[in-house]
Amino acid sequence: MTYSAFLRCFEGCPGEHPLHAAFYRCPKCGGLLDVVHDVEALKQRGARRWIDLFQDRRVDGRYPYDSGVWLRREWVAPEVGDASIVSMGEGATPLVKAGLLGQRLGLEQLWIKQCGQSPTGSFKDLGMTVLVSTVVHAMRKGTLSVRAVACASTGDTSAALAAYGARAGLPVIVLLPRGKISTAQLVQPIAAGAKVLSLDTDFDGCMKLVRSLAESGLVYLANSMNALRLEGQKTVAFEVVEQLGGVPDWLVVPSGNLGNVYAMFRGFELLRTLGLIEKLPRLVAAQAAQADPLYRAWSAGKQEVAPVVAGETVASAIQIGNPVSAPRAMRALSATSGVVEHATEQEIADVGARADQAGLYVCPHTAVALSAVEKLRGRGVIGVGERVVVVSTANGLKFTDAKVRYHEGALSNVVSRFKNPPTELAANEGAVADAVRALTGA
Question: Domain ranges in the chain?
Fold first, then answer.
C-alpha cells in the first residue's frame, strides 16, 4: 500500500499542495495550512495490523525506528525515505505517574509526559525532525532550493532547529529576543553552529521579521506556522494512549504560540479515525497570565483571539502575545470540549517548587500546566478520580537560573514560599551534627 499526504487550506479552500511547498499560508485566502493524509488508505490496513507493525519496529529498534516519530512514519510524513530522515532518536519519552504531587493537587491519577527527555531537551524535536527531513527529501529530489532554514524563537525551537539543521548540513538562522531567554537556551543554537540574531524586541517582533524573510524567499520558515512541525508533535498523543493503555480524561498543555494544542488534537483525532480509540480527551490550554491572549478570548466567549503585549514571565518559552496558531487552537478546544486556564507568576513559582519537591524538577511551562490543573480541580471542573496527563514540554535543567533565583528569594514579584537554600556551616563535626539533629528532630 502506498500512503501519501499533502497540504490543504485550514479554512477549507480547494486545492492541494506538496508538503515541501515553500509557503505557509493558503495562496487563496491567506489562512493557515494543514497536513492532510489519505485516511482511506490508512484505514485499509486496519487497527490491529497497525499496532502489530509498530510493535515489530519497536522490537527491531534499528534506525530510524528508535525514534518515536519515525516509528509511525506512515502517519507523519509517508513520502520521506530513509536516506532523507534526520533523526536523533527523539520521542519515545516516559509517561511518569506523579502520585505524590497528584495527592497534593487533589488528584488520584496525575501523569507527566516527559517530553523534555529528548535530544535537545524539549518536545520541539518532534516537529523539527519532520520539518528538516522533509526539506532534505525535497532538496534531494530537486523540488526545493533552500538558502537557509530560519525561525523566531523563545529558546527551545532555536535549539531544535540548530541541532537538526546541523545534522543535515543545512544553514540555520535564528532570531531571538535579546535578554528574554535562559542562558542554557541561548547557548544551544550557538553551540550547534547556527547564526544567532539577538534582537531588541520580543518573540512577536522576531516572528514578524522571520515571516517577512520567508515571504520574500530569503529563508525557509521553521516555526510552527509551518504545518510540518505539528505532524511530529502530534505523536505525543500516540505515545500517551499507548503508555496509559487508553485515553486520558484530560490532557493539559502549556500554550504559547498554540500549535501544540492543535497538534495534540490532530493526534487523537487520527487515532479515533483509524479505530484505535473511541473518544477524545478534553484538552486544557494553559497560559501564563502575563501572556494569555487565548485565555482572554475564551473567557469572553469570543471565537477570535486578539493580540496582546506579552509581559515578562518566568515561563519565557510561552511569553507570546500574538499566537500564530490561535485559529487552530480554537478548533481543537471546540472539538474536545476543552478549556483554557492561566497562572500568575506566584502560582507558577509555587506549584513548580512543589513539583520539584516531589522529585520532578519541572520547567516553568510545565508549572503553568500544573497550576491550571490545581485550579480546575479546585473548582470541580476536573474530578478527583479522572485521569489527567500534563505534557511537560521542556527539561527543567534549561531553567536552572530561574530555580536558583527562586530559592534565593530573588524572583521578581514572587514570594518564595517553598524555598530551600543551603545551610552554610563551619567544617567541623559538632556543627554538622547539631544541624542534622535540628533538621531531623533528633
Answer: 95-119+231-408
